[in-house]
Amino acid sequence: MNTSTSINSQDLNMMPAKKFLLLEDSNINVKINFYNKYNFFCTKSNTQCIKLDITFTFGLDLKVDMKLVSSIGTVSQIGDISKMIIWVQDDAIRNEIRSCTNYLQRQKNLNFAISILKNIAVTIEERKLILQMLILHSDGCIQYKNHLDGGVLIVYHTEDKKYFKSHWKIQFICATHSAIDCIDFTVTRKDVLFYKVVKGAMDHLVSPNLPFNVKVQHWWTVIEAVKMTCEVPVLEIIDGDIWDQQDFTLVRSLTLLSAGVSEQYEIVEDEEILTV
Q: Angle CA(90)–CA(114)–CA(154) in degrees, nearest 5?
């Protein structure tokens, strides 16, 4: 991969950061915190290198600190990057996309890293907008929190019944250099009306790479089911905090994340397995 980036010979501190990084995207804010030149001695030659400490802000929610060590091929050009450290400032997002940042650090390609992080920021913002929509229109029945394994855990329940929970994680596929939504649902079958309304929407939502408007449409179906069931008397109360009992259905995507290959989706109902 080509990692060269053109710069002027003038002092970097006097240059606009976006000009230095050849960035024209208004959604990416760049701040160069530290810049230094030093001589790197080896057995064959004396090479001049630079150290850079840069903070990127992608969209509204993704702030990334990046430390770079690069050789200088000429006066006006940065050579190959010999060291790249990426640190996501938000703890939850850092945990969620750790596999992605580890991969980017190994590639040591600044422009490639910026492109991938920009796409991930868009996916994160889309999820945040949908979560805000769920909270706003569910009359307090839907809540979410950060999941220990990364991503977000979404739960819909009333005081006397649990309806569904969902784990929504953004996964990076190295083979395709893409970020996908990895969503699963655990949904009750006790409320027949709710189950019939949301089953089709959930079957679609476990599919990765849905356009944003399609995701909004299917999540809105879930919200409408929430409103519908809140007006219907609850017939049976489920006690305890157990979700994997026979009264619940697991809806998940069988996506081979490491290989970037999508397979079919699986609906598990009691002992019967239906392939959709």
A: 40
Taking the C-alpha atoms of residue 233 and residue 61, their distance in angstroms, rounded to an integer, is 40
Amino acid at 48: Q
On whether residue 21 sits in a domain, the answer given is yes
> Cα-flanking dihedrals φ and ψ of residue 208, to 5°?
-75, 160
Helix/strand/coil percentages in the chain, nearest 5: 30, 40, 30
Which residues make beta-bridge pairs with 138? none
Q: Is residue 129 part of a domain?
A: no
Q: Average pLDDT over the chain, rounded to whole?
A: 73
Instruction: Indicate whether 67 and 115 sit together in one domain.
Output: yes
Contact 165, 243 (CB under 8 A): yes
> What predicted TM-score, i.e. pTM, was given to this entire model?
0.72
Compute the distance between CA of residue 218 and CA of residue 133 in angstroms, rounded to an integer.
12
Only one residue has tokens 């309304």, namely 197
Domain membership of residue 257 as a residue range? 138-275
Strand pairing class (62-74; 162-173): unpaired
Span 229-266, pLDDT tens digits? 655 444 333 344 555 555 555 655 544 334 443 333 33
For residue 131, tell me if it sits in a domain. Answer: no
Domain total of the chain: 2
DSSP code for 242 = -
CB neighbours of residue 170 within 10 Å:
21
Cα 57 from Cα 126, distance rounded (Å): 16
Question: Residues 116, 144: one domain?
Answer: no
